[in-house]
UniProtKB/TrEMBL annotation:
It comes from Stutzerimonas kirkiae. PANTHER family: CYTOCHROME C DOMAIN-CONTAINING PROTEIN (PTHR30600:SF4), CYTOCHROME C PEROXIDASE-RELATED (PTHR30600). PROSITE patterns: CYTC (PS51007). The keyword Heme applies. This is Thiol oxidoreductase. Keywords: Heme, Iron, Metal-binding. Transmembrane segments: none annotated. SUPFAM superfamilies: Cytochrome c.
Length: 451
């Protein structure tokens, strides 16, 4: 009841005064730069040089040889892409390849086998590690290529409308180090947007756990579960809140993990290249210093992520949008896509503290049913569980990134397809949407496009 009251309060906001999606970190930009704008005024002036360095590192293309640019050396020995923006174009969302002939430009494949590593995480595939890296530096072979096969089926809505749903199935070719493990587990992942993450890190663990208790008390069949993951800096278990399965405890480790897994760049948190035993050339590669990404450079990249602003909502006064917001609540969507959170104390960047934000996420894992399952556990996350992705900024995806592909593997070609893939704890909300009239569905989609 508290959640529905909060939603009703939002829906009844005064005309012309939409909720500030990112609190003080909200920006009224509905153009192609909507995901890239920084809150310079919220960052102490003494840190502006570091913030500019972080922006430059996120935008940079990394190289192989120190003789070219010693500050950007370290790419490889195996890697997926040479820059952050290769996978997060304009700080936005990646997409699957459009055809089997295209490589994965902003998508990757996680690999593991049944079991857990020493810290409770996924157990790496013996020959290829935790992620397939297609490319290698000169003298080091890439691991192979992944491509997609698509399976589709039809769904029928209550008014007789039919919607085609599709899902990708990975296949592999040109594998350089022998066959994959017979019990291989895979998970396709497109890169998510990176704005607003500092605000999400600033939400207190106590508040997240309180939401989980409230969900259980409401008895709607929704039971968010926090992931518990290994925090490398602390050397202990911590709440997971970033990544498609909430498998990273904070932004600093999330960034360092991506640098290591996607670009092959080491840091104090990931000090060694990922070179499984059969990859002799990878293991012999010693042209780069380690760690390649210094602590101050990682701090600068983290600060850049903290300072990114959230695009403001649009069209909030339209009657159709306001009706869609009410339908979003009554359908049960807001049980997981929680419209309002509050940030707590955050000494890393005090301006992020004490903000009322509207990410439309509870930052927890939920069982999404067999249709969305990847079958690959990640710490406490089962093969059917995913973290609730924030919805803020989703209405600008086509403007910023030129596509509307959604969900963890980009299978959904729009908002309605994404909703119809929801199962498990979200099955009730999905069926409520399925039962809507065409006018009601369009109102719901209009609301989502306003975010």
């Amino acid at each position: 009841m508290l959640l529905l009251a909060a939603i009703a309060q939002l829906a009844g906001a005064a005309p012309g005064v939409p909720p500030r999606a990112g609190g003080a970190f909200t920006l009224a930009d509905d153009g192609r730069s909507a995901y890239t704008r920084l809150a310079w005024e919220r960052v102490p002036e003494a840190l502006h040089e570091r913030l500019a360095e972080g922006r430059a590192l996120v935008r940079a293309t990394w190289v192989v040889s120190p003789s070219l640019d010693s500050d950007l050396a370290g790419l490889g020995p195996t890697y997926n892409r040479p820059s952050c923006l290769s996978c997060h174009p304009r700080n936005g969302r990646g997409e699957p390849p459009a055809s089997v002939a295209e490589p994965m430009r902003s998508m990757l494949v996680r690999l593991s086998i049944p079991g857990q590593d020493a810290h409770g995480g996924p157990l790496a595939e013996p020959n290829y590690g935790e992620q397939l890296n297609e490319h290698g530096v000169p003298g080091v072979p890439g691991e192979g290529e992944a491509w997609l096969q698509w399976r589709s089926h039809q769904e029928t809505l209550a008014d007789g409308s039919r919607v085609e749903l599709r899902r990708p199935v990975p296949a592999f070719r040109e594998l350089a180090f022998g066959p994959l493990h017979p019990r291989l587990l895979t998970s396709l992942r497109v890169a998510p947007p990176i704005f607003g993450l500092g605000l999400l890190e600033a939400v207190s663990e106590a508040d997240i756990l309180a939401i989980a208790r409230q969900q259980r008390a409401e008895g709607r069949g929704v039971a968010g579960m926090p992931n518990r993951v290994w925090d490398r800096a602390r050397g202990g278990v911590a709440l997971g809140r970033f990544g498609w399965k909430a498998n990273q405890p904070g932004l600093r480790q999330q960034i360092a993990s991506a640098m290591a897994g996607d670009l092959g760049i080491t840091s104090a948190l990931f000090p060694e290249p990922d070179c499984p035993p059969p990859q002799a050339a990878c293991r012999a590669w010693d042209a780069d210093r380690h760690p390649e990404l210094s602590g101050p450079a990682l701090d600068a990249m983290t600060l850049y992520h903290y300072a990114l602003q959230v695009p403001a909502r649009r069209d909030v006064d339209e009657p159709r949008v306001r009706r869609g917001e009410r339908l979003f609540a009554t359908a049960g969507c807001a049980s997981c896509h929680r419209p309002m959170l509050r940030t707590g104390a955050f000494p890393e960047l005090p301006a992020l503290a004490g903000q009322t934000i509207h990410p439309y996420s509870d930052l927890m894992l939920h069982d999404m049913g067999e249709g969305l399952a990847d079958g690959r556990p990640d710490y406490l996350a089962s093969g059917r569980q995913w973290r609730t992705p924030p919805l803020w900024g989703i209405g600008l995806l086509a403007t910023v990134n030129g596509h509307g592909l959604l969900l963890h593997d980009g299978r959904a070609r729009g908002l309605l397809e994404a909703i119809l893939w929801h199962g498990g704890e979200a099955a009730g909300a999905r069926e409520a949407v399925r039962a809507m009239s065409a006018v009601e569905r369009e109102a719901l989609l209009a609301f989502l496009r306003s975010l």
